[in-house]
Design goal:
By secondary structure, the chain is α+β, with helices and mostly antiparallel strands. It has helices at about 25, 50-60, 165-170, 175-190, 200-210, 230-235, 235-260, 275, 310-330, 370-390, 405-420, 465-475, 490-505; strands at about 1-10, 15-20, 35-40, 85-95, 105-115, 120-130, 145-150, 160, 265, 280-285, 295-300, 305, 330-345, 350-360, 365, 395, 425, 440-445, 455. It folds into two domains: about 1-265, no CATH class; about 265-390, no CATH class. The chain has a seven-stranded antiparallel beta sheet with strand order 2-1-4-5-6-7-8. Strands 9-16-17-3-18-19 form a six-stranded mixed beta sheet, sandwiched between helices. Strands 12, 13, 14 and 15 form a four-stranded antiparallel beta sheet that branches. The chain is globular and about 75 Å long.
């Protein structure tokens, strides 16, 4: 199991430094800790969306995809702070693992730095460290680097740490070593993770199994069988580095890669993400993928072609969505209606063309005719179900409150906080939530770019956090400035001037 414990941003857009910790996961190491919710509130342009975008960047990178090819990301140069040539995102993970070379409970630190120079952007550093938090384990009692790749300039030969262990490992096969470093350079310039990219993974598995030609087949290993005779021929220094660095590194890689592919969902309003794209997304089995799952996305608001195999997953998912929507909007249900057939792109498969309907009081209308708020709830529903049900699920939603009735929003979040098991990070402007969530679950943005995120100090359980926040905005009193003051008379003047100009046309 993997959970996010802490996120740190350095020179990321308008954030010189900002840290957000998940209160339960950060303090506890019990897998039964339940829901861990963080809501981010603050002035427009104060860095709320930046957190969600940073998480989307990390998800893309650790999933093994190029940052240059993800349509849900803005241009990478937009992430750099003005007059800064590097940015960093650090994420601390809590990991429960059955790998015998990794402690049963540990903290994994992941650091990514992107740099730019002469119109080039590349990954200048990627670093993974591991430390045990299990007192019964003697492994990794102190924080130890498993993998660190540093590249000072695009195309330059990178350095790999811990230097001693990786030198001993790569000395086993010179061609594999040369191939690995070549791919490091290519992947860094393509903004594909040198560590989590498939090409690197295949080469590290080749080292781990002592089958040094394995990577040439370009196949995802199903049975990673160690070539025992070849392993036995290796020097003791290789065997020690394999046990102490390579095997733990591959264990961490497998857990984080699968986690981001299968358990992490990011809804970013910049590209309207899945919720505003009117898409229902779900995991389905796929033997071609490393995590043995792939994403199926279905557009709910226009006729969609579905194969028989896809229908077998969509029908039960839609039933669960309909149940949840009926609880959130009493009397409303969702159904699917076949409207024709369509030949898929392979030219051989005949798919059913289905349309999704909204049903209320015996009246059926196309789902595309429903309100924006209802459509948003439908699109988010499967992700929210997973947050409620699975401790390893992480969902980040920018502007969760947009289009959702504030009382319903409060009820929904209260249920997740009280009965949920996963992690939810959201940004919002509706202050109703401040009256319902614990103070520890609320993060406030400040006007200080060097300390962008803070928690309320001195708040008691009996305090109304909404009232306290509004007092702090209007009167101050917090150690950090929560709001850059606006002046209603200046606003009035600006509106009047605009009106006068328009009236003269």
């Amino acid at each position: 199991m993997v959970r996010i414990s802490q996120i740190e941003l350095f020179d990321f857009k308008n954030i010189e430094y900002g840290k957000i910790a998940f209160p339960k996961t950060f303090k506890d190491t019990d897998s039964s800790i339940g829901a861990d919710v963080v809501g981010i509130y603050g002035q427009n342009g104060s860095g709320k969306t930046s957190v969600v975008q940073a998480l989307k960047l990390i998800k893309t990178y650790i999933s093994g995809y190029s940052l240059l090819e993800d349509p849900e990301l803005p241009p990478i140069q937009d992430f750099f702070a003005p007059n800064k040539n590097s940015l960093s995102v650090h994420v601390l993970f809590y990991l429960e693992c059955s790998n015998e070379r990794i402690p049963p409970k540990s903290l994994v630190s992941y650091e990514l730095t992107l740099s730019r120079a002469n119109d080039s952007i590349w990954a200048s550093q990627e670093k993974i460290s591991l430390k045990s938090v299990d007192p019964s384990s003697e492994l990794f009692s102190k924080r130890r680097v498993l993998f660190e790749l540093v590249q000072d300039a695009p195309g330059a030969t990178p350095t790999l740490a811990p230097k001693g262990d990786w030198t001993r490992l790569l000395a086993a096969d010179n061609q594999l070593k040369m191939s690995l470093y070549a791919y490091f350079i290519v992947q860094q310039s393509s903004l594909i993770s040198p560590f989590f990219g498939l090409d690197t993974y295949l080469r590290l598995v080749s080292l781990e199994t002592c089958n040094f030609n394995f990577y040439r087949h370009k196949l995802i290993p199903k049975d990673q069988v160690v070539d025992e005779p070849n392993l036995e021929r290796q020097p003791d220094s290789f065997k020690a580095a394999r046990l102490h660095t390579l095997i733990p590194a591959l264990g961490v890689e497998a857990n984080l890669h699968t986690y981001f592919l299968e358990r992490v969902s990011i809804f970013d309003t910049r590209v309207n993400a899945n919720c505003s794209l009117n898409i229902l997304s779900m995991d389905i089995p796929d033997e071609r993928s490393r995590g043995n799952k792939s994403h199926l996305t279905v557009n709910l608001f226009k006729p969609a072609p579905l194969s028989e195999n896809d229908l077998s997953f969509v029908e039960p998912a839609l039933s669960r969505v309909s149940n949840l929507v009926g609880a959130l909007v009493p009397g409303l249900s969702i159904k699917m209606k076949e409207v024709g057939t369509q030949l898929l792109d392979d030219g051989n498969t005949v798919a059913k063309q289905v349309e999704f309907l909204s049903c209320r009081d015996g009246v059926e209308i196309p789902l595309r005719c429903e309100s924006e708020g209802v459509r948003k709830l439908i699109s988010l529903s499967l992700s929210l179900m997973e947050v409620h049900s699975y401790p390893e699920t992480f969902v980040a939603i920018d502007e969760l409150d947009s289009g959702v009735f504030e009382y319903l929003l409060g009820e929904l979040l209260s249920v997740i906080v009280s009965f949920g098991r996963g992690q939810l990070l959201f940004t919002a402007h509706n202050l109703r939530v401040l009256e319902l969530l614990p103070t520890s679950d609320i993060v406030l943005t400040t006007s200080d770019p060097k300390n962008r995120f803070v928690k309320f100090k001195g708040s008691r359980p009996s305090n109304n956090l909404r009232d306290q926040y509004l007092r702090s905005v209007s009167l101050g009193g917090e150690s950090s400035n929560l709001y850059i003051p606006t002046d209603k008379f200046s606003i009035d003047e600006a509106l009047c001037l605009g009106g006068d100009e328009l009236g003269s046309i």
